[in-house]
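Ticket reopened. Same input as before:
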Amino acid sequence: MIRRTESLLVETVCRILIPLIQLFALYVIVHGHYSPGGGFQGGCILGASFILMVIAYDIRWMKHRFSEKKNTLMVALGVFIYSLIGFICIFLGAEYLNYGIFHRILPVDVAKARSLGILAVETGVGITVMAVMVSIFLNLTTYGKHEKGEV
Amino acid sequence: MKIFAIIIVILTGAVLIYSTFDMPDWGNPNSPASVHVSPRYIEKTIEETATPNAVTSVLADYRGFDTLGETIVIFTAAIVCILLLRREDDKTH
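Engineering reply: fixed in the latest deploy. New output:
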């Protein structure tokens, strides 16, 4: 099902496009405060860039750059970041996920601290969504075998 | 038995359609959804969170716990997908 296209045209276009797609994904994540976007949308675009790698090259080529171990760790890392932010708020003396309390440890006022808390949380969401997209795509398209051969 | 099921579906659909006549108009400023917490989110989002995009501030700050749940849902989807499908070789197949 997923085999290398071995087409010079496809590989060259993807080699140029993939970094731009990833840059745009990071822009969507960090610019979610001012424009439509955020962790879910940016994470999906970032995951799509890795899926494009699998389609244009093959799974082995993609895994050489983004191994399965790293991918599975990042699935959990995003949720961990999110809940860690919540627990830091508790240790600083506020409610769970009440980012306003960050003004005690950061040199900003309460509103700006909330803005930074939103950014940190969106980053966690983006990491999880990206890893989940890649993981589900690989497992569903190859029946969990992660081979480049036909299925 | 099939006719019985169709009658139940039609009756339920009729009740649901009848209940929509009591819903407020589209975009009605006096509807419960528009007078409860929405005005506060729209008016105070820059003052309280320094975030011009009210959607983001509601998603990640005012309703942060809800978004944590959403993230855990997709986390669970990936974990279940790995547990059910992933295998190292195809000898079992």
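Chain A has five helices and no strands. The mean pLDDT of chain A is 88. Please confirm and we'll close it.
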